[in-house]
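re: ur question from yesterday

yeah so i grabbed the chain u mentioned. its 608 aa long if i counted rite. heres the sequnce exactly as i have it in my notes:
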Amino acid sequence: MIFDCLQDFVKHLDDAGELVRIRETVSAHLEIAEITDRVSKQNGGGKALLFENVEGSSMPVLINAFGSWSRIQAALGVTKLDKIARDIDAYLHMAPPETLLDKAKMLPILLQASQFPPKMVSNAPCQDVVKTGDAVNLDEIPIIQCWPHDAGRFITYPIVVNRSVDRSIRNVGLYRMQVYDKKTTAMHWHIHKDGAHFFHEFKRKGKIMEVAVALGADPVTCYAASAPLPYGVDEFLLAGFIRKKAVPLVKCKTVNLEVPAHAEIVLEGYIDPAEMRREGPFGDHTGYYSQDGDYPVFHVTAVTHRRNPIYLTTIVGIPPQEDFYLGKATERIFLPLLRTQLPELVDMNMPLEGVFHNCVLVSMDKRYPMQARRLMSTLWGAGQMSFVKTIVVVDHDVDVQDEQTVLELLLNEIDFNRDLFFSEGILDVLNHASDHALYGSKLGIDATRPIDGEAAANPPQGKATAPDTQLIQTIQNKFADVQSVRVCGLNTKRHVVLVALDKTRPHQGRDFLRQCLEDDGLSAAGVIVALEAHVDLNHTSTVLWKLFNNLDPRRDVQVVGGRLGIDATKKLPEEGYTQDWPEEIHMSGDIKQKVDEKWERMFPKSIS
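ran it thru and got these structure tokens back, copy pasting raw so excuse formatting
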């Protein structure tokens, strides 16, 4: 089923029991975010939420709309995400016709493909109501503040439309927008994004840049705006391909741009490249606050909307959140495109705790020496895969979706001296672990079996054994700065020891690990990870999230005698760290209490 607009999708979710309508009065200031954070962390992602009574606005707020496997699949009109990947693969590998019969067979496919590009319409529901001039008022929209230390209210799911300075290329992307006042917002496009590239074109020419923003559209278009398409490929074309019918577009009222005709709300306006303003901080998808910085200012010249619009928004933060499922859709859909460059690529998995760009697991059909390292190097040069910090490569017969199996392979079979591969390159703007912003070290782990022409591996010897729990007491007795210790309960050749360290001085984590790795009395600890003192070592997902976020591989990884130490503690300026280490995202106690008081009224036991 393909939905023509967001409201049709809401009706479907309601009928399917995937939506909770909340009639309790709530505040857009932090309360919606706290409620959503709790729901999104329920098993399976919880339900979609429609807040029907938001203080100060007549518009309902929809959130967590795509935050489960069933909802993201329904949004894209499939029962399994791999269906879209197979469709892409079929077009990519379409054989050229050789006979008249072959050409006849292609006609249905070509006719279907002709429906993919967007089409223009003259009338659109998104322009039922048109407000310009003094009537423009962003305060009428229930834009939320997500986290206590955010700089203010942020539009978090804007479908931002602009064109190159010569108008030959359209870009559609998701870039958060901090609300400054009734008519202006920030436009937060990172240095690596197409929107920023277009912006700098206008800046060099000294021209005003027109921008339009759709808030809520049909579900496929909402997804397509988030997709990491190659430069110059129209996101509305991708939406048409997934929908198998064109996205209807309408010309804006005050700018020369086109927006989805069935959008809920549209903001029209412009950016003067000469005007920059401080934006942020903002609680981001890494689970940390991103730093503030100077970004372009978006001036709103018109607000158009349906007669009874729904405001679609989202929150990001410590995983899991709704964005995990959007990212998983991208993982499945774009796999065939990666295979066009890397035919040996079998499958990939972006683990939840890796927040997309911190860790990727890939499997490959290995045929020649060092091919795994070639694969990693190529991925580090491919679009948004270039932001990935850690890549683990396994053989074709290993299921990368089974993360437990991959972990056991790493602990049982690889040679830390041989199979760890360090590189350098660009990193996501939100990466805080590197000593310097925007670039740093990367780690490749070649967990494939050695073949002829490769050096022999020296994996750990002996059989897999139960973990030695005596390590806990031994480490606590030897190191006064250790707050807690956990030995992971895996029957493997190498045992993983997690340590919460009370770090009070520079290089404390590095020095602690060196002592542990050189201590024969701790030889049963094959991998030792040092974390910050407040980390709950018993919550494995949190440990992995902290590890992937805080790791700068070349700086933080030590290998001694076939054993591995990883320093995932906060880094200090005295250690050569030049960025500002951000705060973790946590909700304030007073908001938690307010939500506690409303919880039973919002979620009776029969539906919670």
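noticed a couple things. The mean pLDDT is 93. also The radius of gyration is 25 Å.
anyway ttyl
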